[in-house]
Design goal:
Layout: H1 3-12, H2 18-29, H3 40-47, H4 51-60, H5 66-85, H6 95-116, H7 119-131, E1 134-139, H8 142-154, E2 160-163, H9 167-176, E3 182-187, H10 193-204, E4 209-213, E5 226-229, H11 240-262, H12 268-278
Parallel strand pairs: 1-2, 1-3, 3-4, 4-5
């Protein structure tokens, strides 16, 4: 836990109810674990209390809701995980060791991201996609490539999916979406001013929004309906541009597979696109 939050909880401990103390003791004992990526129902089950007890606890200790507490505590968990999962790479390493380190970064990011997936978030994301008439995909910088890949995948389904590489076109696209549509935003940091502007427009238009990001405490997370979190580490030679992209892409593939399996049971869409793609080959 961050020191400031830890001190606040310690100061409140004597005045806590038995149930609040039980929750606090469990969180403190499991500090550094992946607890804060669980839904409120999943955490309540682990502690053996009701979801409403968790909700009351968050308010008693100064948070507005469980989501705010989860994001704050998850941030420090992210920082502590870095050294456990990723090797450092520097210019003194051999060529083979740099290659191995790069692969290990990707493997570590995928493994960590998988461990933090929860069914509640995936189910909410799938529901948003299934109810949408149109899906706008947004991503800038290195996330633009992931956005384009997401659009390419969903073009194989019945979901009307749109993506533009140009930022101003993405701004315009965000303005055309409404509450009957949905948005998928990919952003490594979740702090880019341009992508936050797009998120604001979507929020104003009440567009159900899914976010894929590497920063659980980012401002972008507070502007979405559901977020999928991936783990990556920034190192001297920016392997996060590789490892986070791999995990982001895998989360996109997960959403695509869920949609294709659960929503598009009719293979007509895949067969049609496959036939068109096959016609381009010798």
């Amino acid at each position: 836990m961050e020191k400031e939050v830890y001190n606040r909880l310690e100061a409140l401990y004597p005045e806590m109810s038995p149930t609040d103390k039980k929750i606090y003791n469990y969180l403190k004992h499991n500090e550094g674990s992946d607890l804060f990526y669980l839904s409120i129902q999943e955490l309540a089950k682990k502690i053996d209390v009701s979801p409403s007890a968790i909700s009351r606890f968050t308010k008693h200790v100064g948070f507005s809701n469980y989501q705010e507490m989860r994001l704050t505590l998850a941030q420090s968990t992210d920082e502590k995980k870095e050294e456990l999962f990723f090797p450092e790479i520097n210019e003194h390493d051999s060529i083979l060791n740099i290659a191995k380190g790069t692969f290990q970064n990707g493997i570590g990011s995928l493994t960590s991201t998988l461990s933090m997936l929860n069914e509640d978030s995936l189910s909410k994301a799938l529901t948003i996609l299934s109810k949408a008439k149109k899906c706008g995909v947004f991503g800038l910088g290195s996330s633009r490539i992931i956005g384009e890949s997401a659009c390419q995948r969903f073009l194989r389904t019945s979901l009307d999916t749109r993506f533009f590489s140009d930022y101003h076109m993405q701004l315009m696209l965000s303005g055309t979406l409404g509450k009957e549509d949905c948005a998928l935003i990919i952003s490594h940091t979740g702090k880019n001013k341009d992508i936050l502007r797009i998120a604001d427009i979507l929020y104003e238009n009440k567009v159900p929004t899914i976010v894929i990001t590497s920063c659980a405490s980012a401002p972008l997370v507070r502007k979405c309906d559901v977020f999928l979190f991936c783990v990556s580490e920034e190192t001297k030679f920016r392997p996060e541009a590789i490892s986070s992209s791999i995990s982001h892409l895998m989360l996109v593939d997960t959403l695509f597979t869920l949609y294709a399996t659960k929503i598009d049971s009719n293979p007509e869409y895949f067969t049609k696109i496959r036939k068109i793609v096959n016609s381009t080959r010798l």
